[in-house]
Amino acid sequence: MTTLTPPRLAHVHAADAMHPGVLTCTRDTPLSEVARIMAAHRVHCVVVDAPGATRTDTWALISDRDLVAMAAVDDVDEPTAAIAAGTAVPRIAASESLMRAAQMMSQYEVSHLVVVGDQSGRPEGILSTLDIASVLAR
Is residue 2 one of the residues assigned to a domain? Predict the structure, then answer.
């Protein structure tokens, strides 16, 4: 008789695997500054936040892929983060499982999720595909 082992990801919360903290910029931040933020902190995405916004549907996300797409057409000097941010901001609650995170990443075809507090609904961290890979490698 074989015993099925439950998926490892189902037992780990997003908050346990995420990188805590979220780097943000405003909608009018120049792309060159966004590039500096990414390079200085060695991250692949920055949340574009509207100052004072309390609704999460006002967020956008600018990824390294969005930045490179603008660079590919030699358009990084003038545009702002709001113009270049093309990545939807799927979010996941801190208490959700990594199984759900993996499903969302697959569904939305993204490599990052914003992890939001269960009570506050505000960003608490970023969960990447590499964070999930690290859990699988354990």
Answer: no
Torsion-angle region of residue 90: left (phi > 0), alpha (psi -120 to 50) or beta?
A: beta
Residue 120 lies in a domain: yes
Q: What is the CATH number of the domain that holds 111?
A: 3.10.580.10
Task: Write the pLDDT tens digit of every residue in 74-88.
Answer: 766 678 888 888 766
The model's pTM is 0.79
- The pLDDT tens digits of the residues spanning 108-123 come to 888 889 999 999 888 8
Q: Is 101 in contact with 110 (CB distance < 8 Å)? A: no
Range of the domain at 121: 9-137
Q: Which amino acid is at 120?
A: S
109 within domain boundaries: yes
